[in-house]
Amino acid sequence: MTKYTHACVRLEHPDGGVLVIDPGIWTEPEAARGADAVLVTHRHADHADVARLAVVRADFYGPRDADGVIPIDPGEEFEAAGFRIRAVGGRHAPVYRGQPDVINLGYLIGRACYHPGDSFHVPDLAGPVEILLIPVQGSWMKIADAADFAGTIQARHVIGVHEGQLNRRGLGAANEWLTRLISGYRYLAPGEDLTMGPLPY
Q: pLDDT tens digit string along 1-28?
């Protein structure tokens, strides 16, 4: 898994498939190059840069209210880039009095990885996931929410994402709190890889 700026990660399957999740307007262009499939959690530009994705030759999956995707519903299971995927959740976390109200899908990649998008939806899990991607900052959240969410979902590795609006001081403070509160938490800098042994895809 390679982390890119903000909410984007790139997963490379041992058999060669490349799956990219949420390449948005702050994500480096190389994140989606050579992707076999792209998952979009929701239609906001920090998660889906429509202009950039138009030039990527891949299958795009996302919620029904997003443009240019194969529409996916919560609970739906499918295979893409060699990965078994289940869409979960349903709505973006509210910022204020129910706003914004867009569809947000989290994606469970087998038991290897869970990307919740802009929500703290806790899915039904058959067992622990290997990697939980957890938002570090957003107008819809606070650090306490992230810590409680991570405590609910059992994961060996908890990796911080959704940090694109923070400056260096803010990111340092957020990571200090998350490291203190969440067992197994770490932050990967953009372009940094997390490489492990065989995962339960």
A: 999 999 999 999 988 999 999 999 999 9
Domains of the chain listed by start with CATH number: 2-187 (3.60.15.10)
Centre a 10 Å sphere on the Cβ of residue 145 and count the other Cβ atoms it contains: 15
Closest to 121 measured CA to CA, from 133, 109, 136, 106:
106
SS3 of residue 79 by DSSP: strand
Short-list 41, 11, 6, 187, CA closest to 112: 11
Residue count of the chain, please give it. Answer: 201
Report CA dihedral (4, 111, 134, 50) to the nearest 10 degrees. 50
Type of residue found at 65? D
Residue type for 95, please?
V
Nearest to 60 by CA among 113, 27, 22, 87: 22
Half-sphere exposure of 32 (CA within 13 A, CB side): 29
Report CA 152 to chain centroid distance, whole Å.
Answer: 17
Q: Which residues contact 104 (CB under 8 A, 6 or more apart)?
A: 41, 42, 63, 89, 90, 91, 92, 93, 117, 118, 119, 121
**Joined tokens for residue 152:** 């609910």
* Chain position carrying tokens 């976390």: 93
Nearest to 134 by CA among 182, 189, 72, 194: 182
pTM (two decimals): 0.95
